[in-house]
Amino acid sequence: MSDVPFEACEPPYYAVVFTTVRTQEQNGYPETNARMEELVQDVPGYLGMDHAQNPGGLGITVAYFRDADALTQWRTNAEHRAAQNRGRAEWYQNYTLHVAKVERSHTFKRS
């Protein structure tokens, strides 16, 4: 993960917003999370990701994809599906997932 936000790119593209609250049981989570970050980069059309976690445990990850085909490839990846199942069984108290088409995007950087 980067310490700077994902830069705006030419719309349209998709943003997948994954908001989570984790359980106390996190055995294997860091390794699986690192693997998913590595694996998603191999998806043609994957653009990047932002992540934030507050001290109370709320986490938000936003992944960006060029098109619906890239989303489908990621959603149906067998290793990703196995991680999703384990997440529901062990790591997440609850989560929400939103998929949005980005129609406008810009970046600001202080000089």
UniProtKB/TrEMBL annotation:
Residues 13-85 form the ABM domain. It holds the Pfam family ABM. InterPro entries: ABM_dom, Dimeric_a/b-barrel, Jasmonate_Hydroxylase-like. It comes from Lentzea flaviverrucosa. This is Heme-degrading monooxygenase HmoA. It comes from the Bacteria. GO terms for molecular function: monooxygenase activity. Keywords: Monooxygenase, Oxidoreductase. Gene3D superfamilies: 3.30.70.100.
